[in-house]
Write a structure and sequence with these properties.
66% of the residues lie in helices and 7% in strands. It has six helices and two strands. The model has no long low-confidence stretch (mean pLDDT 83).
Length: 122
């Protein structure tokens, strides 16, 4: 009677697991939604839902008179070198740096990042 844990069965199992893991990894990379390249992709990668953020960003852009995307991007890049987006948004909320746009009350840094997402989608 053959043993269940022979060297051959173990190698086949490990090989199968490696193939399944590789296919799973590649499938998520291939099936991920692609966006047109923009100068703000490094910043927009920090958003969980780029499309939803762009919708919020449209509301932010409607409220902001003179939105300079290059200046905002440079400002956000400088701030995000030192902290995460979550920490930056928390600090903005604590310091009452908030923007209101069509009923949304957002930390300033998050609102401006959403506005960049809207600009990139346009």
């Amino acid at each position: 009677m053959k043993t269940l844990f022979s060297r051959r069965n173990l190698l086949v199992g490990v090989g199968t697991a490696a193939v399944v893991a590789g296919v799973g990894y590649e499938a998520t990379r291939v099936l991920r939604k692609r966006y047109a390249p923009s100068p703000y992709d490094d910043l927009l990668a920090k958003l969980d839902d780029r499309d939803g953020s762009a919708q919020i960003g449209e509301a932010v852009l409607a409220e902001v008179d003179d939105f300079d995307a290059k200046a905002v991007a440079a400002q956000l890049r400088a701030k995000l070198v030192q902290s995460s987006l979550a920490d930056l948004a928390t600090a903005d909320a604590a310091a009452e740096r908030l923007l209101e746009a069509h009923g949304w009350v957002l930390p300033q840094s998050l609102a401006l990042l959403c506005a960049l997402a809207a600009k990139a989608a346009a």
